[in-house]
Amino acid sequence: MPPPRFEGIRGVLLAVLSGVLLALSFPKFGSPAFGWIALTPLLVVLGGAISLRRAFVLGLTTGLVYFAGTLYWLTGVMTVYGDLPAWVAVPLNAAFVAYLAFFPAIFTTVTRRLVMAYGAQALMATPIVWVATELGRTYIMTGFPWVLLGYSQVTVLPVAQVASLFGVYGVSALVAGVSAAAAMLALRPAQARLRFASAGLAGAQSAEAAGPYVVTMLVLLAGLSLWGGLRVARSEWTKVGDPVRVGLIQGNIDQAQKYDSAHAASIFQDYVRLTRQAIGDGATFVLWPEASTPFRFEEDRADADQIRAIARQARVPILLGSDQVERGPATRYYNAAFLVGDDGTTVGVYRKMHLVPWGEYVPLKQVLFFVAPLIEAVSDFSAGDRAVMLPVRGHLISTAICYEIVYPDLIRQFVVGGSELLTTITNDAWFGTTSAPYQHFEQASMRAIETGRYLVRSANTGISGIVDPYGRVLARSDIYQSAVVVGDARFLRTSTLYSQIGDAFAYACVALTGALLVLGWRHAR
Q1: pLDDT tens across 318-359, in order?
Q2: Helix, strand or coil, per DSSP, at residue 246
């Protein structure tokens, strides 16, 4: 009896179903539960009888649904704030989604090639192949590691603790492994029938492998969840280190008014008022969002002096986002964070290192002439070149600006460089009331677990919040409201395994994937 075939519409429907389940694994419309079975329908197809070309197309199909369902909001960003007509913005969004979908397509092609070489038992390699493609998505063409599979579990705290060992990629591997176990169970009856058929030994081996693999995954999941639950329950790192009471300012400034000179004075006074409120509530360290000042901090002496006076009088350092200009033969602009010390002086400046393509600079703008309105709307920023540590009350902190926080190794570099508290400032007003602010906040929370640090986040329109080293959200605001969030964090010098080894697990997955492909090619010969 031949293996199950998925050349017709059934294979496409299963690929679409995986894409839908992946999209529904993330906020604001989804649930973490979907993540555990999201890849199963697609893997069932790959365990059947399809060509490599078909596998690529089905992986692309899954990816298109996956990323269209999680990144739909990009069209609104380009039309509302980039002044692009919908007929240009929609194809641009579609092109970006198609680029990202290329990575699931690589995953399915590689996985199918392994199945052809080793039998359906090769589905056991799903976690390492999936992680290898996620690592590629993090770095290739500047990278865009948004909605990695592991992020779906950031609110499932016992499971999310795996990130303290192997980063978000370790969580991705665990979730993908469960999907693979479910797929092997689904294929097992067909494999058993094939035991003495044309598939011969491969069919028998794959049927025999399903049971042990499923048991192994269940034991691994149970063991890691038990360990993670105990880790959260003990919460040892919430009892060490020096405390700091942070005040997060959420100005809720409409993007259309942000750079309107007619509103500049009222915007600034709102921030001053909210800052005084935070200090009155006991804050000993205050954070303003990204690009929060309606002026350039270094160039408007009068308003900057008000901020310095507040910091000096209250003896409270203030971290704020503002553009910085480096004038000269080649004038450069930076998206920066300034730290005003408790003596009123500027004690540190961090320049954003990982810029947003199409938001802070336009790649290939000489070639892409048809996006001229977007080019005019986008500021032409330069990237910073150093992971600057900022001194706060005798300790060192770091700050990530906007979507820098979704890059695991960048934040790890801050911790290796001495950061005792992770801060991130952002302006999510671009995203409106879509899923993006919720996705962004949860992805930021994963950095706290990975590095064993408190994370504090100030966002112009929300979500602002405080996350402890175990991923618990201690305080948070709602989106699109003016708010002051005041709460306790700690400066920590502890170290997780991930802080020490970085993405070694993910790179090992790349190496193992390559080795399996080479061995499979030799086996096929």
Answers
A1: 999 999 998 888 889 999 999 999 999 999 999 999 887 766
A2: strand
Alpha carbon distance 268, 282 (integer Å): 22
> Measured between alpha carbons, how far is 292 from 318 in angstroms, rounded to an integer?
12
258 is catalytic: no
Amino acid at 229: G
Please answer whether residues 163 and 171 qualify as being in contact, where contact means their C-beta atoms are separated by less than 8 angstroms.
yes
Burial class (CB in 10 A: 0-12, 13-18, 19+), 98: middle
> 89-97: long-range contacts (C-beta < 8 A, 24 or more apart)?
92/371, 94/68, 96/67, 96/71, 97/63, 97/64, 97/67, 97/68, 97/71
* 251-263 residue pLDDT tens: 999 877 776 777 8
Q: Which two tokens stand for residue 344?
A: 């009123």
| The total number of residues written for the chain in this structure | 525
Tell me, yes or no, if 290 is annotated catalytic: yes
Helix/strand/coil for 231: helix
Distance CA 451, CA 192 (A): 45
* 469 close to 452: Cβ distance less than 8 angstroms: yes
- Catalytic pick among 134, 290, 420, 442: 290
Quote the CA–CA distance of 287 and 458 in Å, as a whole number: 6
Three-class secondary structure of residue 432 per DSSP: coil
Residue tagged 């067909």 (tokens)? 190
d(CA 493, CA 469): 12
Nearest to 287 by CA among 452, 397, 446, 445: 397
Confidence category of residue 368, pLDDT binned at 50, 70, 90: low
* CA nearest neighbour of 81 among 439, 373, 397, 287: 373
Contact 510, 135 (CB under 8 A): yes
Does residue 402 have an active-site annotation? yes
Kindly report whether the global pTM for this prediction surpasses the value 0.85: yes
Q: At what angle do helices 163-193 and 200-234 cross, to 10 degrees?
A: 150
Q: Three-state SS across 39-63?
A: CHHHHHHHCCECCHHHHHHHHHHHH
What's the CA gap between 238 and 340, in Å, rounded?
27
The SS3 call for residue 147 is: coil
Out of 134, 360, 402, 509, the active site residue is: 402
